[in-house]
From TrEMBL:
Domain T-SNARE coiled-coil homology: 11-52
Species in which this protein is naturally found: Caenorhabditis tropicalis
Protein name as annotated: t-SNARE coiled-coil homology domain-containing protein
Source taxon at top rank: Eukaryota
Entry keyword Transmembrane helix: yes
Keyword tags: Membrane, Transmembrane, Transmembrane helix
Transmembrane residue ranges: 35-56
InterPro entries noted in UniProt: T_SNARE_dom
Lineage start: Eukaryota, Metazoa, Ecdysozoa, Nematoda, Chromadorea
Gene3D superfamilies in UniProt: 1.20.5.110
Length: 67
């Protein structure tokens, strides 16, 4: 009987170690996705600003009498 308990404890510690690795990997993936989202957001903001500046300098802006 003690051999079964020892084997089960060893198996449980292996599963616990794998779970720790999966949690670490998931946290790393979350951090990377968060960084990617911020970079995409910054790029979109810059793109919108450039498009607005181009529109304000264009002939369409002056012909519409909104500038």
């Amino acid at each position: 009987m003690p051999h079964h308990v020892e084997r089960d404890l060893h198996g449980a510690s292996d599963f616990a170690e794998k779970a720790r690795q999966y949690v670490k990997e998931a946290r790393d993936n979350q951090r990377q996705s968060r960084v990617l989202k911020v970079c995409i957001l910054i790029a979109l903001i810059v793109l919108i600003m450039v498009l607005i500046l181009v529109f304000l300098d264009s002939e369409a802006c002056t012909s519409m009498s909104i500038c």
